[in-house]
Amino acid sequence: MGRLVMKFGGTSVANIERIQNVARHVKREVDAGHEVAVVVSAMSGKTNELVAWCTEASPLHDAREYDAVVASGEQVTSGLLAIALQSLGIQARSWQGWQIPILTSDAHASARIVGIDGSEIIKRFSERKEVAVIAGFQGIHAETGRITTLGRGGSDTSAVAIAAALKADRCDIYTDVDGVYTTDPRVVPKAKRLDKVSFEEMLELASLGAKVLQVRSVELGMVHNMPIFVRSSFDKPEDIDPHGTPPGTLISSEENSMENHVVTGIAFSKDEAQISVRRIEDKPGVAASIFGPLADANINVDMIVQNVSEDGKTTDLTFTVPAADFARAKQTITSAQDKIGYARFDSETDVAKVSVIGSGMRSHAGVAAQAFAALAARNINIRAITTSEIKFSVLIDAAYTELAVRTLHTLYGLDQV
Ligand code: ADP
Ligand code: ASP
Ligand code: MG
After folding, report:
1. Is there a single domain that holds both residue 163 and residue 46?
2. Which of 136, 184, 260, 302 could disulfide-link to 158, CB 3.0 to 4.6 Å?
3. Confidence label for 211 from pLDDT (cuts 50, 70 and 90)
């Protein structure tokens, strides 16, 4: 007997029929003798609708009220799944974040979990054989008593945090794909499922754009050494062999299974904006005068390229910020033009960042150079480059994203994994 957390994303609970399918998956694990806590997302599209309603009510709305609104999607699915489980004869009870409680920071709309009291749920496992059906994405800020949410995709993080708090054996993430692929399988049909991925690589994949898991959930998995298994909710529960190994991807502290591959996967993100500050004075302190105010405004700067000055007097500085922060970044820099001392502000929002990830890069030279040549052969211009130990990223025109991802996927032999 073991203890499991099973998380089901939006498409997996999109309607009553799918919720009943989820209930049969949960029953399968209960019948196999496991203690089960389930974490659910809102029905697919629901959170987008709720977010849009807040914006329609007022573009600049109170984040506390935004959280009160958007947390409601998960409340509905947790109750519905508890009903569906009860109708299958399974003892089940729904839990909202505040009822457990799942305590978070007060950073509304992107709160961080600071503590979870799993004692009542564990007590009910043993005393009542009860399944806990927990609303993902939401928590409560203890001091103010207000409902909080964990940022988009946050149910993954709820699930891993709950798994750690309940000391579960594993956290199963059921979604609309049957695992983590070498790249988004909806963009590259040749993408291959990976059997195993290390936390370290998954952290890079997720933070560089592979939205199959929220970044924070992988961080928590790593910190608590909680194995995460990504699998499909679309498999029929009746067809799953209780003693077999289902298709899926295990994310754990183990190295991945592709020992002969330098590259594990490719991620991409179109949520970037490029800014160039032209003809700034080439003297000490200039970078600080630009990046200091951006940091104060809580804007994350990612790729940075500074040209070597031709005349020894002025230079250009190019960098990227999240597209969502572009307007604020522009305002921050243009309003400080006199202080910084530059001639021109240029920007491009139609850009994408394509990243290649693999822990094998540590021991192999020239991996990035191959990519630059392959992209050049396709006439794809590189606007900026960053590298680190196990990944590198290039910034390109957004229109070439799919072509670049497919080119690199083939280049690194991932079509034939
Ligand atoms: P859920 O609603 O279950 O949380 P998401 O839509 O958040 O599901 O995440 C699953 C989606 O992530 C897939 O449908 C797929 O398009 C996308 N995705 C992006 N990169 C990858 C990848 N490397 N492997 C698998 N899926 C990926
Ligand atoms: N429902 C939330 C969202 O769409 C959380 C989640 O699905 O993980 O972002
Ligand atoms: Mg998700």
Report:
1. yes
2. 136
3. very high
Q: Please classify residue 336 by burial: count the beta carbons closer than 10 Å to its beta carbon, then call 0-12 exposed, 13-18 middle and 19+ buried.
A: middle
Report the chain's mean pLDDT, rounded to a whole number: 95
| Omega within 30 of 0 (cis) for the link into 237 | no
Q: Determine the Cα–Cα distance for residues 162 and 171; give it in Å rounded to an integer.
A: 9
User: CATH number for the domain including 144?
Assistant: 3.40.1160.10
| Residue 48 belongs to domain spanning | 3-254
Distance 221 CA to ligand 2 centre (A): 18
- Ligand 2 atom with the shortest distance to the CA of 157: 8
**Which ligand places an atom closest to the C-alpha of 153?**
2
Query: How many domains are contained in the chain?
Result: 2
User: Are residues 86 and 219 located together in one domain of the fold?
Assistant: yes
395 lines ligand 1 (CB under 6 A): no
Q: What is the pTM of this model?
A: 0.93
Residues 329-361 pLDDT 10s: 999 999 999 999 999 999 999 999 999 999 889
Say if residue 71 is in the same domain as residue 145.
Answer: yes
Q: What is the DSSP annotation of 50-91?
A: HHHHHHHH-SS--HHHHHHHHTHHHHHHHHHHHHHHHHTT--
Residue at 260 is within a domain: no
Is residue 401 in a domain?
A: yes
- Which pLDDT tens digit goes with each residue over 112-153? 999 999 999 999 999 999 999 999 999 999 999 999 999 999
| Residue of 43, 47, 134, 175 with the most ligand 2 atoms within 8 Å of its CB, for mutation | 47
Domain of residue 374, CATH code: 3.30.2130.10
Q: Are residues 330 and 240 in the same domain?
A: no
Tell which of 231, 254, 277 closes a domain. Answer: 254
Residue 286: what are its φ and ψ, rounded to 5°? -70, -45
